[in-house]
Design a protein that fits this description.
The protein is built from 6 helices and 6 strands, in the order E-H-E-H-E-H-E-H-E-E-H-H. With 187 residues, it is α/β, with parallel strands linked by helices. Strands 1, 2, 3, 4, 5 and 6 form a 6-stranded parallel sheet that branches.
Length: 187
């Protein structure tokens, strides 16, 4: 069965990305069309990227933390990124984790679920550009949540009901593209 990783985009205390990832997984698990799992960046504890050779040229990772990260991303067929917007862009921890790898990302599909004061759309657009360089096809459907309307004053995630439809549309597209790209991954 197709394996889709739901990647959290934040590791800081009080983060909301894990709440969003758990909500996405709850919706995804009802579908039965893929094996979905949360990939929590906080569990990988990647140091700041300082490999001597770019991942585009070598998978001889020097940081010991890079090896389990590489294994996890390589075993997944597609992704859903939970993308909070920090200062109009992707979080540094997400960009750092992405930069550690290259070949492990190639020829896969990804959906983006963003949130922020303006729905996180600027961060999502930045992530699309990053993914294009890594040969990841990002899908069009893009659930975006507002910090003002989809999170309670306590910080608890309480998405509007309308978002579930857009999540399912995004997952339809991620699965279709993931399956379509399968021959390229089997080369």
């Amino acid at each position: 069965m197709t394996k889709i990783g739901i990647i959290t985009g934040s590791t800081r205390p009080g983060r909301k990305s894990l709440q969003v990832a758990e909500w996405i997984k709850g919706i995804a698990d009802k579908r039965g069309d893929a094996d979905y799992e949360i990939v929590d960046l906080a569990e990988f504890n990647l140091p700041m990227y300082a490999e001597p050779v770019s991942a585009a040229y070598s998978q001889d990772y020097h940081a010991p933390e890079a090896h389990p990260w590489s294994k996890k991303i390589a075993e997944l067929d597609g992704y859903v990124f939970i993308c909070p917007e920090y200062n109009r862009g992707v979080t540094s921890v997400l960009k750092n984790a992405i930069d550690y790898l290259y070949f492990e990302w190639n020829n896969k599909a990804a959906g983006i679920v963003s949130y922020g004061s303006a729905g996180g759309v600027r961060a999502a657009e930045a992530l699309r550009i990053i993914m294009a360089e890594l040969q990841v096809a990002t899908v069009r459907a893009h659930p975006s949540m507002s910090l003002f309307t989809d999170f309670a004053k306590t910080g608890e995630f309480s998405p509007a009901a309308v978002h579930e439809k857009s999540v399912n549309t995004m997952l339809d597209q991620v699965n279709a593209w993931t399956n379509a790209l399968q021959p390229l991954r089997n080369k």
